[in-house]
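Subject: Interface between my chains keeps coming out wrong

I've been trying for a while to get a sensible model of this assembly. When I model each chain on its own everything looks fine, but I need the whole thing in one frame so I can look at the contacts. Pasting all components below, labels as-is. Any help appreciated, I'm running out of ideas.
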Amino acid sequence: MDKIEKETEVAIIGGGIVGASIAYCLAKGGKKDVTLIERKELASEASGASAAGVMLCLPPPRPLLVALASRSLKAFANLSEDLGRDIDYVTPRITVIEDESALGKYSAYCDTLHKLGHPEMRIIDRAEIIKFEPSLTFGKHALLDPDGGHVNCLYLVTALGDKARELGAKVYEHTEVLNIKQGKGHVKSVVTNRGEIQCEYVVNAAGYWAPRIGEMVGLRIPITPLKAIMLATEELPPVSHIGCLGSAAYFAADQIAGGLEIYPIYRQMGKGEILIGITEEPGEDKWAAFENIQGICRGVGDKLLPYLKDMRVNIVTSFGNLYAVTPDRLPILGPVEGLEGFIMATGFNDYGIGHGYGAGEVIAELISTGETSIPIGEATFSRFSC
Amino acid sequence: MIICRCEEISREEIVAAVRRGARSIAAVKRRTSAGQGLCQGRICQRLIAQVLGEEGVSGIEGIQPPTVRPPVRPIPVGALGSEAEQWIK
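Reply #2:
Try treating it as a single job with all components included. I did that and got this:
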């Protein structure tokens, strides 16, 4: 393993979508004295087991999130070329509105999104739904998100980290931050299992590990893990022609013990496998229990994709991640009062892949220029201290 | 030469992933999809470890297998769903 450098300007803790995006954006912008520190490997946690959905809006529309997502989606269109790796960005995203009484609510969401500068978001009817996805047997209406869809999160996050390294950033894997040292109201260094690194900035992009990092500087960061499980089928010829499909209704799998919540989604990826899911439950492990697998096969396989039975399609593997959930479902971004140099960049709940790159750009701006092109005041850590 | 038969990933692609920064079988998998197909790495895992060794990755990181996840063999979606009765006798 490489010897670690004893000094860096920016130490980024966490090698997921957010950390890798910040490292890439800083290095691309000319700030090369950046060190990305990851306790396992790039994309080992949530970013490596994501449902891979990207979207302009996970309702209800919140202006900050819409702005971050818009940045991400614009970037995805060119990232494959910039990174030298195809990130399998496919559009659109369709969210089926099963409950007709929710139509009014979704129309109001569209009005809000139009006012936020996104006239492309709209409600479509059955005739249009089946133009996009002929095999879909249900759904009278849907929310169309033309630039939403899916990306391959593994390719994306590893490519961001690899390119950052190529551009001059340091990427230390299998390196765990054990402590953070402070001077008078400012960060001084991170202490890792491979040595101490003096630094000007420490970015906490550690997902569900963020509270552990916060403890090192005396902060109580209100992030709790939420266990999410997905399944992957074997590779199939193209049966889905959209980026991703979701259902507007969460429903509880009533046949399954334990009251698992299931948010039905599927996406067919570039190589043909269909990712189906997703179960959500309180938990601190990433293991797909029998109930998770059964719940998805029944709730999503049977309901959304009945032709999988007829085609005798096999489930080949499962994967799970732990979301970093915040109390108000907004991320925690930006500087922390009283601790100069410490920057939060985490708490992306269930929308990390779709918003993390945009957040990475904004945090890189903050570090390079002191300003951000998207106001992040409502997402700072200070909203929790009261 | 093809290392991962299920996904048709060549030795060259694996070497390229290692040179981009992959230092383990799991890291190769994330960059190339080798080991993500039907056999979930049963055939290619040891071959990938061999390539890592040839590319200078020493120590346990280069040979450590990625996490095994359920199901241990492919199962039809229907077997756990609405066709369960036909499958579980």
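Reply #3:
Confirming on my end. Chain B touches chain A at residues 7, 20-24, 26-27, 29-31, 33, 36-38, 40, 61, 69-71, 74-83 (CB under 8 Å).
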